[in-house]
Amino acid sequence: MVTTQQLELLAPLSGVLMPLEQVPDPVFSSRLMGDGLCIDPTSQVLCAPLAGVISNLQHTGHAVSITDASGVQVLLHIGLDTVNLGGQGFTCLVEEGQQVVAGQALIEFDADYVAQHARSLLTLMLVASGESIIDVSGSEVLVEAGQPVLRVGEAAVQASTQQAPSQGDTLFSLAIALPNPNGLHARPAAVFAQAAKGFAATIELHKHEQRINAKSLVAIMTLQTSHGDVVQVSATGEDAEQAIRVLSDLLVAGCGEAVTPVAQVATETTYASAPEPVRVDDTLLRGVCASSGAVFGQVVQIAAQTLDYPEAGAGEAFERAQLQRALLEADTALDSLGREFSQGPQGQIFSAHRELLQDPSLLEQAYPLLASGKSAAFSWAAAVEANEKVFRNLGNAFLAERAQDLADVGQRVLKLILRVEDTVQALPDNAILIAEQLSPSQTAGLDKTKVVGFATVGGGATSHVAILARALGLPAMCGLPAHVLSLASGTPVLLDAEQGELHVHPS
Asked: Which intervals hold domain PTS EIIA type-1 (predicted)?
Protein backbone atom coordinates (compact mmCIF):
# COMPACT_ATOMS: atom_id res chain seq x y z
CA MET A 1 0.00 0.00 0.00
CA VAL A 2 1.06 3.61 -0.34
CA THR A 3 0.61 6.31 2.26
CA THR A 4 0.07 9.85 1.08
CA GLN A 5 1.30 11.82 4.08
CA GLN A 6 3.60 11.41 7.05
CA LEU A 7 2.06 9.58 9.97
CA GLU A 8 3.16 10.08 13.57
CA LEU A 9 2.86 7.15 15.96
CA LEU A 10 2.59 7.57 19.73
CA ALA A 11 4.23 5.43 22.40
CA PRO A 12 1.68 2.69 23.23
CA LEU A 13 2.87 2.56 26.85
CA SER A 14 5.49 4.05 29.16
CA GLY A 15 8.95 2.56 29.47
CA VAL A 16 12.47 2.45 28.10
CA LEU A 17 12.72 2.74 24.33
CA MET A 18 14.96 0.14 22.68
CA PRO A 19 16.01 -0.60 19.08
CA LEU A 20 14.66 -3.77 17.50
CA GLU A 21 18.20 -5.12 17.14
CA GLN A 22 18.27 -5.68 20.91
CA VAL A 23 15.17 -7.89 20.96
CA PRO A 24 16.28 -11.47 21.76
CA ASP A 25 14.14 -13.01 19.03
CA PRO A 26 15.42 -13.12 15.43
CA VAL A 27 11.98 -12.85 13.84
CA PHE A 28 11.46 -9.50 15.58
CA SER A 29 15.04 -8.19 15.52
CA SER A 30 15.44 -8.96 11.80
CA ARG A 31 12.29 -6.92 11.03
CA LEU A 32 10.70 -9.98 9.40
CA MET A 33 7.38 -8.80 10.85
CA GLY A 34 7.99 -5.16 10.00
CA ASP A 35 10.04 -2.18 11.12
CA GLY A 36 9.40 -0.29 14.32
CA LEU A 37 10.59 -0.17 17.90
CA CYS A 38 10.58 -1.94 21.24
CA ILE A 39 9.66 -0.67 24.72
CA ASP A 40 10.58 -2.26 28.05
CA PRO A 41 7.36 -1.24 29.82
CA THR A 42 6.91 0.52 33.15
CA SER A 43 3.12 0.89 32.69
CA GLN A 44 0.49 -1.83 32.38
CA VAL A 45 -2.00 -0.47 29.85
CA LEU A 46 -1.38 -0.77 26.11
CA CYS A 47 -2.77 2.24 24.23
CA ALA A 48 -3.45 2.95 20.55
CA PRO A 49 -0.49 4.64 18.83
CA LEU A 50 -2.78 5.94 16.06
CA ALA A 51 -6.45 6.27 15.18
CA GLY A 52 -7.98 3.47 13.15
CA VAL A 53 -9.89 0.21 13.23
CA ILE A 54 -8.95 -2.83 15.31
CA SER A 55 -8.18 -5.08 12.36
CA ASN A 56 -7.02 -7.99 14.51
CA LEU A 57 -7.21 -8.81 18.20
CA GLN A 58 -5.63 -12.09 19.22
CA HIS A 59 -7.96 -14.10 21.44
CA THR A 60 -5.11 -14.56 23.92
CA GLY A 61 -4.97 -10.77 24.38
CA HIS A 62 -1.23 -10.46 23.87
CA ALA A 63 -1.32 -8.79 20.42
CA VAL A 64 -3.49 -6.34 18.52
CA SER A 65 -3.33 -4.70 15.08
CA ILE A 66 -4.73 -1.33 14.05
CA THR A 67 -5.32 -0.20 10.46
CA ASP A 68 -5.73 3.51 9.79
CA ALA A 69 -7.80 5.18 7.05
CA SER A 70 -4.89 5.17 4.58
CA GLY A 71 -4.24 1.45 5.10
CA VAL A 72 -1.18 1.62 7.36
CA GLN A 73 -1.19 -1.45 9.64
CA VAL A 74 0.50 -1.31 13.05
CA LEU A 75 1.02 -4.47 15.10
CA LEU A 76 1.40 -4.23 18.88
CA HIS A 77 2.82 -7.33 20.58
CA ILE A 78 3.12 -7.50 24.37
CA GLY A 79 6.09 -9.59 25.51
CA LEU A 80 7.88 -12.55 23.98
CA ASP A 81 6.26 -16.01 23.89
CA THR A 82 3.23 -14.52 25.67
CA VAL A 83 0.94 -16.47 23.34
CA ASN A 84 1.79 -19.47 25.55
CA LEU A 85 -0.01 -17.82 28.49
CA GLY A 86 -3.36 -18.53 26.85
CA GLY A 87 -4.80 -15.15 27.79
CA GLN A 88 -3.81 -15.26 31.48
CA GLY A 89 -2.67 -11.84 32.65
CA PHE A 90 -4.37 -9.92 29.82
CA THR A 91 -7.69 -8.02 29.75
CA CYS A 92 -8.92 -6.78 26.37
CA LEU A 93 -10.70 -3.41 26.46
CA VAL A 94 -11.68 -3.28 22.77
CA GLU A 95 -13.17 -5.59 20.15
CA GLU A 96 -12.14 -6.50 16.63
CA GLY A 97 -13.71 -4.09 14.13
CA GLN A 98 -14.01 -1.28 16.69
CA GLN A 99 -12.92 2.26 15.76
CA VAL A 100 -10.36 3.68 18.20
CA VAL A 101 -8.67 7.05 18.68
CA ALA A 102 -4.98 7.63 19.28
CA GLY A 103 -4.16 7.12 22.95
CA GLN A 104 -7.23 4.95 23.68
CA ALA A 105 -6.63 2.06 26.09
CA LEU A 106 -6.61 -1.29 24.28
CA ILE A 107 -5.31 -3.99 26.63
CA GLU A 108 -4.53 -4.12 30.36
CA PHE A 109 -1.89 -6.61 31.46
CA ASP A 110 -0.50 -7.85 34.77
CA ALA A 111 3.18 -7.01 34.37
CA ASP A 112 4.26 -9.13 37.36
CA TYR A 113 2.42 -12.22 36.11
CA VAL A 114 3.62 -11.84 32.52
CA ALA A 115 7.22 -11.21 33.61
CA GLN A 116 7.22 -14.37 35.73
CA HIS A 117 5.55 -16.65 33.19
CA ALA A 118 6.75 -15.43 29.78
CA ARG A 119 10.21 -15.05 28.29
CA SER A 120 10.16 -11.26 28.39
CA LEU A 121 7.92 -8.22 28.87
CA LEU A 122 9.51 -6.37 25.93
CA THR A 123 6.66 -4.90 23.87
CA LEU A 124 6.89 -4.35 20.11
CA MET A 125 5.28 -1.70 17.91
CA LEU A 126 5.76 -2.69 14.25
CA VAL A 127 4.57 -1.21 10.96
CA ALA A 128 3.37 -4.41 9.30
CA SER A 129 2.14 -2.97 5.99
CA GLY A 130 5.55 -2.20 4.55
CA GLU A 131 5.96 1.57 4.87
CA SER A 132 9.42 2.85 5.72
CA ILE A 133 10.31 4.32 9.09
CA ILE A 134 11.93 7.72 8.67
CA ASP A 135 12.41 8.74 12.29
CA VAL A 136 12.67 6.99 15.64
CA SER A 137 13.27 8.67 18.99
CA GLY A 138 16.67 7.97 20.55
CA SER A 139 17.17 4.50 22.02
CA GLU A 140 17.46 3.68 25.72
CA VAL A 141 15.47 6.74 26.74
CA LEU A 142 12.42 6.80 28.97
CA VAL A 143 9.18 7.60 27.13
CA GLU A 144 5.66 8.20 28.36
CA ALA A 145 2.53 6.64 26.86
CA GLY A 146 1.09 9.01 24.26
CA GLN A 147 4.43 10.65 23.49
CA PRO A 148 5.32 10.83 19.75
CA VAL A 149 8.10 8.30 19.15
CA LEU A 150 8.05 7.32 15.49
CA ARG A 151 7.20 8.70 12.06
CA VAL A 152 6.18 6.65 9.05
CA GLY A 153 7.47 7.83 5.70
CA GLU A 154 5.42 9.55 3.05
CA ALA A 155 5.33 6.58 1.30
CA ALA A 156 6.94 5.90 -1.82
CA VAL A 157 7.49 2.37 -0.66
CA GLN A 158 5.23 -0.25 -2.19
CA ALA A 159 4.58 -3.03 0.28
CA SER A 160 5.35 -6.45 -1.09
CA THR A 161 2.16 -7.79 0.49
CA GLN A 162 0.18 -6.43 -2.45
CA GLN A 163 -0.81 -9.08 -4.96
CA ALA A 164 -1.38 -8.25 -8.58
CA PRO A 165 -4.11 -10.27 -10.30
CA SER A 166 -2.67 -13.55 -11.60
CA GLN A 167 -3.72 -15.44 -14.70
CA GLY A 168 -4.41 -19.15 -14.93
CA ASP A 169 -6.13 -21.83 -12.89
CA THR A 170 -6.18 -21.70 -9.11
CA LEU A 171 -4.50 -24.68 -7.45
CA PHE A 172 -5.31 -25.88 -3.93
CA SER A 173 -3.29 -27.85 -1.43
CA LEU A 174 -4.92 -30.66 0.45
CA ALA A 175 -6.19 -29.84 3.94
CA ILE A 176 -3.41 -29.33 6.51
CA ALA A 177 -3.81 -29.62 10.27
CA LEU A 178 -1.62 -27.00 11.95
CA PRO A 179 0.99 -28.53 14.29
CA ASN A 180 1.82 -25.23 16.04
CA PRO A 181 0.79 -25.32 19.72
CA ASN A 182 -0.76 -21.85 19.40
CA GLY A 183 -1.63 -21.84 15.72
CA LEU A 184 -0.19 -19.23 13.37
CA HIS A 185 0.56 -16.52 15.91
CA ALA A 186 2.94 -13.66 15.07
CA ARG A 187 6.22 -15.57 14.72
CA PRO A 188 5.14 -18.47 12.45
CA ALA A 189 2.76 -16.14 10.60
CA ALA A 190 5.70 -13.87 9.74
CA VAL A 191 7.75 -16.81 8.49
CA PHE A 192 4.87 -18.04 6.33
CA ALA A 193 4.13 -14.57 4.91
CA GLN A 194 7.81 -14.07 4.07
CA ALA A 195 7.91 -17.41 2.25
CA ALA A 196 4.72 -16.57 0.33
CA LYS A 197 6.28 -13.29 -0.84
CA GLY A 198 8.95 -15.34 -2.59
CA PHE A 199 6.42 -16.39 -5.24
CA ALA A 200 4.90 -14.35 -8.05
CA ALA A 201 1.59 -16.23 -7.74
CA THR A 202 -1.42 -14.82 -5.92
CA ILE A 203 -1.51 -16.88 -2.73
CA GLU A 204 -4.32 -17.21 -0.20
CA LEU A 205 -4.70 -19.12 3.04
CA HIS A 206 -8.11 -20.66 3.76
CA LYS A 207 -9.74 -21.63 7.07
CA HIS A 208 -13.30 -22.84 6.65
CA GLU A 209 -15.11 -20.02 4.78
CA GLN A 210 -12.41 -17.47 5.53
CA ARG A 211 -9.67 -16.71 3.01
CA ILE A 212 -6.91 -14.12 3.34
CA ASN A 213 -3.88 -12.75 1.51
CA ALA A 214 -1.11 -15.14 2.57
CA LYS A 215 1.58 -12.50 1.96
CA SER A 216 0.21 -10.32 4.77
CA LEU A 217 1.28 -10.99 8.35
CA VAL A 218 -1.71 -9.19 9.84
CA ALA A 219 -4.15 -10.96 7.51
CA ILE A 220 -2.79 -14.36 8.57
CA MET A 221 -3.22 -13.44 12.22
CA THR A 222 -6.86 -12.49 11.61
CA LEU A 223 -7.62 -16.17 10.98
CA GLN A 224 -7.14 -16.73 14.75
CA THR A 225 -5.86 -20.26 14.20
CA SER A 226 -5.21 -22.79 16.94
CA HIS A 227 -3.41 -26.11 17.23
CA GLY A 228 -4.98 -28.68 14.93
CA ASP A 229 -7.01 -26.17 12.91
CA VAL A 230 -7.40 -27.26 9.29
CA VAL A 231 -6.22 -24.83 6.60
CA GLN A 232 -5.59 -24.90 2.85
CA VAL A 233 -3.27 -22.94 0.60
CA SER A 234 -4.41 -21.74 -2.83
CA ALA A 235 -2.22 -20.23 -5.54
CA THR A 236 -2.88 -18.69 -8.95
CA GLY A 237 -0.06 -17.91 -11.36
CA GLU A 238 2.94 -19.28 -13.21
CA ASP A 239 4.71 -20.67 -10.12
CA ALA A 240 1.51 -21.81 -8.37
CA GLU A 241 2.44 -25.49 -8.29
CA GLN A 242 5.77 -24.86 -6.62
CA ALA A 243 4.17 -22.39 -4.20
CA ILE A 244 1.59 -24.98 -3.12
CA ARG A 245 4.28 -27.60 -2.56
CA VAL A 246 6.71 -25.39 -0.65
CA LEU A 247 4.13 -23.59 1.49
CA SER A 248 2.29 -26.82 2.34
CA ASP A 249 5.56 -28.36 3.50
CA LEU A 250 6.27 -25.22 5.52
CA LEU A 251 2.91 -25.42 7.31
CA VAL A 252 3.31 -29.12 8.08
CA ALA A 253 6.80 -28.41 9.48
CA GLY A 254 5.53 -25.66 11.79
CA CYS A 255 6.85 -22.54 10.02
CA GLY A 256 10.10 -22.48 11.95
CA GLU A 257 8.65 -23.48 15.35
CA ALA A 258 9.58 -26.66 17.16
CA VAL A 259 6.44 -28.75 16.83
CA THR A 260 5.21 -32.29 17.30
CA PRO A 261 3.76 -33.62 14.03
CA VAL A 262 -0.02 -34.03 14.01
CA ALA A 263 -2.09 -36.45 11.98
CA GLN A 264 -2.90 -34.75 8.69
CA VAL A 265 -6.39 -34.70 7.26
CA ALA A 266 -5.22 -36.12 3.98
CA THR A 267 -1.91 -37.33 2.67
CA GLU A 268 -0.44 -35.17 -0.04
CA THR A 269 2.29 -36.25 -2.39
CA THR A 270 5.47 -36.02 -0.36
CA TYR A 271 8.71 -34.56 -1.57
CA ALA A 272 11.88 -36.08 -0.25
CA SER A 273 14.22 -33.72 1.56
CA ALA A 274 17.76 -33.52 0.33
CA PRO A 275 19.81 -36.54 1.41
CA GLU A 276 23.24 -36.16 2.92
CA PRO A 277 25.90 -35.66 0.24
CA VAL A 278 27.54 -38.96 -0.67
CA ARG A 279 31.02 -39.67 -1.96
CA VAL A 280 30.78 -43.29 -3.06
CA ASP A 281 34.39 -43.36 -4.28
CA ASP A 282 36.75 -41.10 -6.19
CA THR A 283 34.78 -41.66 -9.40
CA LEU A 284 31.18 -41.25 -8.18
CA LEU A 285 29.67 -38.37 -6.23
CA ARG A 286 26.00 -38.16 -5.35
CA GLY A 287 23.76 -35.16 -4.71
CA VAL A 288 20.27 -33.87 -5.49
CA CYS A 289 18.70 -33.21 -8.88
CA ALA A 290 18.03 -29.50 -9.40
CA SER A 291 17.31 -29.72 -13.14
CA SER A 292 16.98 -33.03 -14.98
CA GLY A 293 19.16 -34.21 -17.83
CA ALA A 294 22.47 -35.95 -18.44
CA VAL A 295 25.50 -34.52 -20.18
CA PHE A 296 29.21 -35.21 -20.76
CA GLY A 297 31.66 -32.36 -20.29
CA GLN A 298 34.74 -31.08 -18.54
CA VAL A 299 35.04 -29.56 -15.08
CA VAL A 300 35.45 -25.81 -14.74
CA GLN A 301 35.90 -24.74 -11.13
CA ILE A 302 34.22 -21.42 -10.30
CA ALA A 303 35.65 -19.69 -7.24
CA ALA A 304 33.66 -17.09 -5.34
CA GLN A 305 34.80 -13.53 -5.97
CA THR A 306 36.34 -12.03 -2.82
CA LEU A 307 35.79 -8.33 -2.24
CA ASP A 308 38.04 -6.29 0.05
CA TYR A 309 36.85 -3.02 1.53
CA PRO A 310 37.81 -0.70 4.39
CA GLU A 311 35.84 -0.62 7.62
CA ALA A 312 36.40 3.09 8.23
CA GLY A 313 34.56 5.59 6.06
CA ALA A 314 35.46 8.99 4.67
CA GLY A 315 32.60 10.82 6.35
CA GLU A 316 28.91 9.99 6.74
CA ALA A 317 27.66 12.26 3.95
CA PHE A 318 30.15 10.89 1.44
CA GLU A 319 29.56 7.24 2.36
CA ARG A 320 25.77 7.65 2.36
CA ALA A 321 26.00 9.14 -1.14
CA GLN A 322 28.10 6.17 -2.28
CA LEU A 323 25.52 3.72 -0.93
CA GLN A 324 22.60 5.61 -2.49
CA ARG A 325 24.39 5.71 -5.86
CA ALA A 326 25.01 1.95 -5.77
CA LEU A 327 21.42 1.21 -4.73
CA LEU A 328 20.06 3.33 -7.57
CA GLU A 329 22.36 1.65 -10.10
CA ALA A 330 21.43 -1.81 -8.81
CA ASP A 331 17.71 -0.98 -8.95
CA THR A 332 18.06 0.26 -12.53
CA ALA A 333 19.95 -2.89 -13.54
CA LEU A 334 17.43 -5.24 -11.92
CA ASP A 335 14.52 -3.35 -13.48
CA SER A 336 16.18 -3.66 -16.90
CA LEU A 337 16.83 -7.39 -16.41
CA GLY A 338 13.24 -7.92 -15.24
CA ARG A 339 11.95 -6.27 -18.41
CA GLU A 340 14.39 -8.16 -20.65
CA PHE A 341 13.28 -11.52 -19.26
CA SER A 342 9.67 -10.55 -18.50
CA GLN A 343 8.20 -13.67 -20.12
CA GLY A 344 10.14 -16.23 -18.09
CA PRO A 345 11.07 -17.10 -14.50
CA GLN A 346 14.22 -15.00 -14.85
CA GLY A 347 12.07 -11.88 -14.89
CA GLN A 348 10.15 -12.96 -11.79
CA ILE A 349 13.38 -13.67 -9.94
CA PHE A 350 14.92 -10.31 -10.82
CA SER A 351 11.68 -8.62 -9.73
CA ALA A 352 11.92 -10.48 -6.41
CA HIS A 353 15.52 -9.30 -6.09
CA ARG A 354 14.36 -5.75 -6.69
CA GLU A 355 11.87 -6.10 -3.83
CA LEU A 356 14.68 -7.29 -1.56
CA LEU A 357 16.75 -4.30 -2.62
CA GLN A 358 13.90 -1.94 -1.70
CA ASP A 359 13.39 -3.51 1.75
CA PRO A 360 13.77 -0.58 4.17
CA SER A 361 15.09 -2.82 6.97
CA LEU A 362 18.46 -3.15 5.21
CA LEU A 363 18.97 0.61 5.22
CA GLU A 364 17.63 0.89 8.77
CA GLN A 365 20.54 -1.34 9.80
CA ALA A 366 23.15 0.22 7.51
CA TYR A 367 22.53 3.91 8.32
CA PRO A 368 23.53 3.75 12.02
CA LEU A 369 26.83 2.16 10.98
CA LEU A 370 27.41 4.98 8.49
CA ALA A 371 26.69 7.49 11.26
CA SER A 372 29.28 5.78 13.48
CA GLY A 373 32.00 6.34 10.87
CA LYS A 374 31.89 3.07 8.96
CA SER A 375 32.28 2.86 5.18
CA ALA A 376 29.35 2.33 2.83
CA ALA A 377 30.70 -1.08 1.82
CA PHE A 378 31.18 -2.22 5.42
CA SER A 379 27.77 -0.93 6.55
CA TRP A 380 25.90 -2.50 3.64
CA ALA A 381 27.72 -5.83 3.95
CA ALA A 382 27.01 -5.97 7.70
CA ALA A 383 23.28 -5.29 7.18
CA VAL A 384 23.01 -7.95 4.48
CA GLU A 385 24.96 -10.50 6.52
CA ALA A 386 22.76 -9.96 9.59
CA ASN A 387 19.59 -10.57 7.57
CA GLU A 388 21.10 -13.57 5.79
CA LYS A 389 21.90 -15.11 9.16
CA VAL A 390 18.30 -14.74 10.30
CA PHE A 391 16.98 -16.54 7.21
CA ARG A 392 19.49 -19.36 7.59
CA ASN A 393 18.74 -19.84 11.30
CA LEU A 394 14.95 -20.06 11.02
CA GLY A 395 15.15 -23.83 10.63
CA ASN A 396 13.44 -23.93 7.25
CA ALA A 397 15.21 -25.02 4.07
CA PHE A 398 13.11 -22.84 1.79
CA LEU A 399 13.84 -19.65 3.75
CA ALA A 400 17.50 -20.62 3.96
CA GLU A 401 17.52 -20.69 0.15
CA ARG A 402 16.00 -17.20 0.10
CA ALA A 403 19.12 -16.12 2.00
CA GLN A 404 20.99 -16.92 -1.21
CA ASP A 405 18.88 -14.33 -3.06
CA LEU A 406 19.66 -11.75 -0.40
CA ALA A 407 23.37 -12.55 -0.67
CA ASP A 408 23.15 -12.11 -4.45
CA VAL A 409 21.50 -8.71 -4.11
CA GLY A 410 24.01 -7.73 -1.44
CA GLN A 411 26.96 -8.69 -3.64
CA ARG A 412 25.52 -6.75 -6.59
CA VAL A 413 25.31 -3.55 -4.53
CA LEU A 414 28.70 -4.13 -2.90
CA LYS A 415 30.40 -4.37 -6.29
CA LEU A 416 28.73 -1.14 -7.36
CA ILE A 417 29.87 0.63 -4.19
CA LEU A 418 33.45 -0.53 -4.85
CA ARG A 419 33.14 -0.04 -8.62
CA VAL A 420 34.33 -3.62 -9.12
CA GLU A 421 33.46 -5.51 -12.31
CA ASP A 422 32.36 -9.15 -12.34
CA THR A 423 35.20 -11.61 -12.76
CA VAL A 424 35.21 -12.86 -16.35
CA GLN A 425 36.45 -16.42 -16.75
CA ALA A 426 37.23 -17.89 -20.17
CA LEU A 427 35.21 -21.06 -20.64
CA PRO A 428 36.01 -24.08 -22.82
CA ASP A 429 33.38 -25.90 -24.83
CA ASN A 430 31.20 -28.41 -22.94
CA ALA A 431 31.91 -26.75 -19.60
CA ILE A 432 30.34 -28.25 -16.49
CA LEU A 433 30.65 -25.64 -13.78
CA ILE A 434 31.54 -26.75 -10.25
CA ALA A 435 31.14 -24.31 -7.37
CA GLU A 436 30.45 -24.03 -3.68
CA GLN A 437 27.42 -21.96 -4.69
CA LEU A 438 26.19 -20.17 -7.80
CA SER A 439 24.09 -17.05 -7.40
CA PRO A 440 20.87 -16.47 -9.36
CA SER A 441 22.59 -13.61 -11.20
CA GLN A 442 25.49 -15.85 -12.21
CA THR A 443 23.10 -18.58 -13.36
CA ALA A 444 20.91 -16.25 -15.40
CA GLY A 445 24.00 -14.96 -17.20
CA LEU A 446 25.50 -18.34 -18.15
CA ASP A 447 26.76 -18.69 -21.72
CA LYS A 448 24.81 -21.66 -23.06
CA THR A 449 27.15 -21.91 -26.05
CA LYS A 450 29.84 -23.00 -23.58
CA VAL A 451 28.09 -24.25 -20.44
CA VAL A 452 26.26 -27.59 -20.64
CA GLY A 453 25.50 -28.07 -16.93
CA PHE A 454 26.61 -27.32 -13.39
CA ALA A 455 26.90 -28.86 -9.93
CA THR A 456 27.17 -27.16 -6.53
CA VAL A 457 27.82 -28.07 -2.92
CA GLY A 458 25.15 -25.69 -1.61
CA GLY A 459 21.67 -24.81 -2.80
CA GLY A 460 18.50 -26.84 -3.07
CA ALA A 461 15.91 -28.10 -5.53
CA THR A 462 13.54 -25.22 -4.70
CA SER A 463 16.15 -22.46 -4.99
CA HIS A 464 15.98 -19.76 -7.63
CA VAL A 465 19.20 -21.17 -9.10
CA ALA A 466 17.43 -24.50 -9.64
CA ILE A 467 14.42 -22.76 -11.19
CA LEU A 468 16.71 -20.88 -13.57
CA ALA A 469 18.55 -24.06 -14.53
CA ARG A 470 15.26 -25.69 -15.50
CA ALA A 471 14.22 -22.59 -17.46
CA LEU A 472 17.54 -22.61 -19.31
CA GLY A 473 17.33 -26.35 -19.98
CA LEU A 474 20.65 -27.00 -18.21
CA PRO A 475 21.15 -30.25 -16.25
CA ALA A 476 22.11 -29.29 -12.70
CA MET A 477 22.78 -30.87 -9.32
CA CYS A 478 23.13 -29.47 -5.82
CA GLY A 479 24.06 -30.86 -2.42
CA LEU A 480 27.25 -32.56 -3.62
CA PRO A 481 30.02 -33.42 -1.12
CA ALA A 482 32.76 -30.82 -0.70
CA HIS A 483 35.22 -33.20 -2.40
CA VAL A 484 33.79 -32.04 -5.73
CA LEU A 485 35.61 -28.72 -5.22
CA SER A 486 38.95 -30.53 -5.39
CA LEU A 487 38.37 -31.84 -8.92
CA ALA A 488 40.83 -30.24 -11.31
CA SER A 489 39.45 -28.05 -14.07
CA GLY A 490 39.51 -30.02 -17.31
CA THR A 491 38.59 -33.33 -15.63
CA PRO A 492 36.09 -35.24 -17.81
CA VAL A 493 32.78 -35.95 -16.05
CA LEU A 494 29.29 -37.26 -16.72
CA LEU A 495 26.64 -35.20 -14.95
CA ASP A 496 23.54 -37.40 -14.64
CA ALA A 497 21.26 -35.02 -12.77
CA GLU A 498 18.19 -37.24 -13.00
CA GLN A 499 20.00 -39.95 -11.05
CA GLY A 500 21.73 -37.43 -8.79
CA GLU A 501 25.15 -38.70 -9.85
CA LEU A 502 28.38 -37.09 -11.02
CA HIS A 503 30.73 -39.62 -12.63
CA VAL A 504 34.40 -38.65 -12.70
CA HIS A 505 36.51 -40.00 -15.59
CA PRO A 506 33.52 -41.96 -16.97
CA SER A 507 34.49 -44.97 -19.03
From this structure: 25-129
